[in-house]
Amino acid sequence: MEKTFLEDLAPGQVFTSDARAVVDAPSIKRFAGEFDQQPFHLDEASAQDTFFKKLVASGWHTTAVTMQLIIKTLPLSHGIIGTGVDELRWPRPVKPGDTLRLHCEVIDVTPSKLEPSRGTVRVRMTTLNQHDQAVQTMIANLVAFRRPQRAA
Amino acid sequence: MEKTFLEDLAPGQVFTSDARAVVDAPSIKRFAGEFDQQPFHLDEASAQDTFFKKLVASGWHTTAVTMQLIIKTLPLSHGIIGTGVDELRWPRPVKPGDTLRLHCEVIDVTPSKLEPSRGTVRVRMTTLNQHDQAVQTMIANLVAFRRPQRAA
Predict the structure, then answer these.
(1) Per the CB < 8 Å rule, is B84 touching A83?
(2) Is residue B127 within a helix (H) or strand (E), and if so which, with residue range?
(3) B22, B27, B40, B60: best to mutate for the A interface, most A CBs within 10 A
(4) ipTM of the complex as predicted
(5) CATH number of A6-145
């Protein structure tokens, strides 16, 4: 992927890729075992008596898998450096066997007033399952750098 | 911990606990190896030439560790079920060896109009390091359930 700099970015631009991530039951249970030990994330049997009634991935597992996809989809020159996230939502849970992909749209690009070498790009990121249903939406603010200038 | 129901919650309430989570270099690298393969999260040497100039934890690792702490701090009756997060910020990165703890404050409690058995609790969650510095702040909307009524 060609590196993208601050001046290459504009509102309305869309970034997608062929990157896909499969979330299977063992990975759901492994993530939950370390970070989110609740019955609806740990095993199928104990999930039946819960709000979800079945095994579902932790929302924080969904964000982590989304990060895998962001790296493969948005080729910012210095990597993906987030300063913050707004409106993170999980409209439906990720289920065992789901295959996720990412759709990114640039909302806004703001050069920094204090740091001339960089700025902020505000991006709407939608994580979709294999049925093209959104499993996660968020608005992320990322650091973007200007292309280095050669000496005249 | 005694279970907390919707009617037990009120704005201004604070939940804290003795729960602590140590984030060491191997766990930073392991999380990044699976979910966030960028040089500033993967090893000390390659981190030196980056924006951070040293190894730091992925922000999504910080959210995942925070989830560990939420479960141990906020005793909602049916578990921690998030519908969304607003204003997620990482004011400073988590560094190898940091010990994290959680401070939760209830902002608002809203009974559901459609589902009389439950409502939403809006909580400000601050993740602090061993120097009492915030490494993460977020506002989370969680599902809270009413205490079951006995038959009269």
Answers:
(1) no
(2) strand B118-128
(3) B60
(4) 0.95
(5) 3.10.129.10
